[in-house]
Amino acid sequence: MAYVSVKGGEKAITHAHQWLAEDRRGDPGVSELEVAQVREQLSLAVDRVMSEGSCYDRDLAALAVKQARGDLPEAIFLLRAYRTTLPRFGASLPVETEAMAVRRRVSAAFKDIPGGQVLGPTFDYTHRLLDFALAAEGGAAPEPAPQAEEPQAYPMPNIASVFRHEDLLEHDVRADEAPEPYDLTRQPMKFPADRDQRLQALARGDEGFLLSLAYSSQRGWGSTHPLCGEIRMGEVAVEFVPDELGFAIEIGEVTLTECTMLSGFAGSAERPPQYTRGYGLTFGHCERKAMSMAIVDRALRHREVGEQADAPVQDEEFVLYHSDNVEASGFVQHLKLSHYVDFQADLQLIRRLRKEHFERRAALKEAAE
Amino acid sequence: MPAEPVHETANNERRNWLSILAKAQPAEVSAAWDALAEPPTYSALRAPETGLVLVRGRMGGAGDAFNMGEMTVTRAAVRLESGETGIGYVAGRDRRHAELAAAVDAMMQAPALRPVVEGAVVAKLARAQAERRDTAARKAAATKVDFFTMVRTRGPQ
Q1: Residue A161 — very low, low, confident or very high, per pLDDT cuts 50/70/90?
Q2: How high is the pLDDT of residue B5?
Q3: I want to staple B102 with a disulfide (CB 3.0 to 4.6 A). Which of A239, A355, B78, B125 is the partner?
Q4: A296, A206 contact by CB (below 8 A)
């Protein structure tokens, strides 16, 4: 096969990027979007980019959203690429979500959960009617939200600790000497995967993919019959031990969304019947993602409870290998890059096969006559 | 965490102010520093450097750790002219925030300089944080559902 290396396109690429920059800006008669506006007013886009970009930094995520023209998987890619340029100082102590300064906490399973049902800033119960008042320019700032006389008391016990004394809900266990948790950014996927590896992959995973998997599970493809034990969102302090100090200090706060799903378990020879739990945790306010993650986490724990695994959501290789949208997007989208040689090779092969096909047909026809 | 028992109180105090400095907004730290009548001069022991800290969660909320994602963190270390050293570890990428946190940390450890920043910087930042936390907690409490039930007797037994 003749192979000719092809070079070129620099000028076309430069011009394409110039046009991209112009399109990104849009109509110059409309004022330019500031990164701070994205950070403050498209905050849930920022949260998703931080969560799946696996890097908590509101300003960087907002910049990525602006640069990507609102294409969130592209913004996630930009953030992931940026994080590779930074050194890692180390790992934090595990965040204590029970100590969260909760802005929202609801339990769909247990109405009288101590601390109450705190709705927080939610889309739930809105009518999903377009609000044309938001389209009016120069609108006045909304009234500040009402404040109760008594502030919410923290910490708010979570669903697991509420039922801790009863053993109705599965307990979280801590090993005496737990090994360092698996780190997918330094270690390749391995199977069978332990729960720490799965949770890291799911925390970075694509919201749409996890949502669809969770939905497939609810519809019967590996159902775990989940009840939403609790969703909470708010601020948690991050503690880190600097080498210089040798003791832990708080280095800042992050907003997290946590979800606990409850699934009934009929029991086995070793384990009494009780509720098992699926767990979701994301950066920012990503409730749909946290709920989906919790359902998928529980479905992937089928080995622990001896469930038959025959649905996609229970197949950890299928789930973990396909949940990362930077990898998925890269592999699907690489198809639009030059495959001229592959195509030439295929063409030659198909031409030869067709020639042979017609020659055989002609020979058969001749023999028949 | 492993801490020398004899230093525990001092460490806890230091933990407290380092936490306040880290959780403050960079602009607040800058403004409080700039308002000091005679800020001391300091030199960099470690120039501000931005990196990542891997944030860990707990499986199920209270179990063993898993790695959930990273966060940007900037650190710095300074030495005051009078010799005290301080460090700053702050979330985000604001270099001045980390450097000023380190300078305040150094001053808080110097008996002569502590009064200069204890009220005007650390306590001021702490008040602003407590106020923000209180406002959010009151807004949260205002969204608490008040159920109208005929009888309310059930609870975890």
Answers
A1: confident
A2: 53
A3: B78
A4: no
> Quick one: average pLDDT of A89-106?
97
| Percent of chain B that is helix, strand, coil (3-state, to 5) | 45, 25, 25
For residue B157, the chain A residue with the least C-alpha distance is A166
Q: Tell me if A117 sits within 8 A of A103, measured CB to CB.
A: no
SS3 state at A158: coil
Contact criterion met (CB below 8 Å) for B22 and A254: no
Name the β-bridge partners of A261: A228, A278
pLDDT band per the 50, 70, 90 thresholds, residue A265: confident
* A281: contact with B, CB 8 A cutoff: yes
Which candidate in A48, A156, A197, A251 is best for mutational testing of the B interface (most B CBs within 10 A)? A251
Q: Find out whether B113 and B40 touch, Cβ atoms under 8 Å.
A: yes
Tokens of B139: 């807004």
End-to-end CA distance of chain B: 36
What is the interface pTM, i.e. ipTM, of the complex?
A: 0.93
Q: How far is A309 from chain B (nearest CA, A)?
A: 22
Residue type, A64: A
Peptide bond into A192 cis (omega under 30): yes
Angle, CA of A71, A328 and A87, to the nearest 5°: 80
For chain B, say whether A208 makes contact (Cβ under 8 Å). no
Which pLDDT tens digit goes with each residue over B86-112?
999 999 999 999 999 999 999 999 999
Instruction: Tell me, yes or no, if B64 comes closer than 8 A to chain A by beta carbon.
Output: yes
Q: Helix, strand, or coil here: A112? A: coil
| Residue B68 forms contact with A (CB below 8 Å) | yes
A206-233 average pLDDT score: 95
Give the pLDDT score at B3.
Answer: 45
Who has greater pLDDT, A39 or A161?
A: A39
Partners of residue A235 on adjacent β-strands: A101, A255
Sign of CA dihedral A243, A249, A252, A253: positive
**B48, B136, B110, B135: which is closest to A235 by C-alpha?**
B136
Q: Is B108 within 8 Å of chain A by CB?
A: no
Among residues B103, B56, B60, the alpha carbon closest in space to that of A248 is found at B56
Look-up of token digits 């002219």: B81
Residues of B in contact with A282 (CB under 8 A): 68
**How much of chain A exceeds pLDDT 90, in percent?**
79
Would you give the end-to-end CA distance of chain A in angstroms? Answer: 38
Alpha-carbon span A165 to B127, nearest angstrom: 38
Question: In angstroms, rounded to a whole number, what is the distance separating the alpha carbons of residues B90 and A83?
Answer: 17
Across chain B, what does the average pLDDT equal? 92
Instruction: Tell me the average pLDDT across A113-141.
Output: 89
**Cβ partners under 8 Å of residue A142, min gap 6:** none
- Closest by Cα among A49, A52, A84, A89 to A69: A49
Q: Please state the pTM of the whole predicted model.
A: 0.92
**SS3 state at B5:** helix
pLDDT of residue A6: 64
